[in-house]
Amino acid sequence: MFCYQCEQSFRGQGCVEVGTCGKDDTTATLQDLLVHALKGISMYAHRARQADAADPEIDAFVVEALFATLTNVNFDPERLSSLINRTVIVRGQARRLYERACQTKGIAPEVLAGPAVWLPAASIEGLIKQGRQALITERVLAAGPEIANLQELITYGIKGVVAYAQHAKNLGGADPAAYATIHEILDFLTWPSLTVDELVTMALRTGELNYRVMELLDMVNTESLGHPEPTSVRVPARERQLLSRVTT
Length: 248
What we know:
The protein contains 8 helices and no strands. By secondary structure, it is mainly α. The chain is globular.
């Protein structure tokens, strides 16, 4: 495995055998594969939105599933494999949404490849084998460390966005425009031959989206719980408890 998505990463460089958080190589591989599969949904969802079509169910699934790949959110291989298999169904919904929107607009739909047509293996063992092709180390070999690291920076930025978005959704808050940008960014990460300038620009957009969704979460928190106010709390003095050491 190789994972460096959080501040717990071993020596600040990455976990290569087991995560400092407790994540094992099976979980890490399935999470990377799930991200790959979700990009396929967003490839269709992004183009559907460009044709003025959207589906809240698709948006909700992408946010929920991507949230499951954050550190300490879901380390259950069975649940992750279930989400991976579910992406095929949701991707089909997104594709039909896109094709209907194109028909309405009188335009021909694009023929997509990569994550848009990827199919999962029938077993967890097969998924792990597929997932090894989506590992960060493989992308570093294919695109070089500079490009691969910038891609991962954007990916982790989007994971931060969906953390706020998922909590906001749980409180009844949703921002269709933010979901549209999430799809756009995940689609962007499937483009071949990305340049450093393109990646840096998208990383900055991801940061802007983070603030936008954070504002949404703050708003729904305030609506649900009220405005935070300084509150006096009495902390009475108490006798200090001393522990005696028994020596033998």
